[in-house]
Amino acid sequence: MRHLHIPGLIALLGATLLATPAGAHPSDHHARTTVPAPTTATVATDQLGPDSVLAVVAHGRFDVAGARGLERSLEVITADGTRHPVWTVAVRQRRGWLPGDFVLRDWRPEMHTALLRVSRGPDGDTLVSYDVTTGATRQVPAPERASTTGLAPDGSGVLMTTYGTPRRAGRVGVLAWDGSKEWLPAQGDGAAITSADGQTLVTTDAKSWWISDLASRTSRRVEVDRFCTPVRWADADSVVATCSAGRGSQLRRVDLDGSSVPLGVRHATRTARNAPPILSDGDVRTVQGRDYYESFGGCGGAVLTRQGAAGEVRVVRVPGDRGALSLVGTRGDDLVIAHIGDDCGSPGARSVLSLFDPVSKDETHLTVLPRRESWSEVLAAAEVRSWIG
């Protein structure tokens, strides 16, 4: 298991545990670590409508060693931009760990439930499900070799992939809340997505996909002929995926029989002269009869682009934008976008959730985070997406 240091996950909720400093031997002195309990709240079911957003917000500079006043919160943001924190934890750096910190690993809209991966520092991680409408919580220790995880749609536990080895591909299984495991006859290299109806699990394995029936516990392998990573469902039988083959990347719609069609141009590793340095597309949304892409270039952040009939790519400028953005969804004629930080430390960049009309260039701010806060994750609350790795 890859435990995270700063910024990391840490906590066995509301408990006190013994933590061994990194590099210490069992005979070394054990320092007792008090893990902060989260402050929780709930929202009404109707606050999780099609225009609501689920977000993880970082409060403070998690990237600065020794920083104080750190918090992280899971929040529901309603259509009017109002923030509703449902899980908030104050954390403090201790021996390079952040007891109480968490990351979001999955979200099931029909269950109103988030899956959080919470770290116990050098002692491992805990997988915690939290129903944001009832406050119900369940948890189970993450196995040491657990790679990516998602909620089992029937509520029985957690779906997971494991790290592969030089001799064997990663495994795919179901981890029950009592800690018992059941392995599926499938393989996985980490990327995965569960269907909206909860019946199907798709895992990737190099240029193949494994399609598992969660009711019958059967799996079949389909050849995709590319390295394709699921993003979200396009419809009940096909997935929007980022695919790579040779020296390029392309957004494609992949059917569950392995066939696929392009959703955009193929980006080469070397861009044309005078073209924006776009290496890949992460998603595409359609408003006002036009396709708009979340495209990635340098600095680890995305920009908004359009593609012409001849394959040319141009950046769509968002007024006042000084950083990267995330393409969250659509609302009527508008794109829902989140302004986020990037790896370049863009000066003056703010964390904002907005409605953006890409034709008129009008932008309406829904939620503006204070200067010391930033988005860790932002996703549409009514949409089933791939597991967050």
Automatic annotation (TrEMBL):
<feature type="signal peptide">
    <location>
        <begin position="1"/>
        <end position="24"/>
    </location>
</feature>
<keyword id="KW-0732">Signal</keyword>
<protein>
    <recommendedName>
        <fullName>WD40 repeat domain-containing protein</fullName>
    </recommendedName>
</protein>
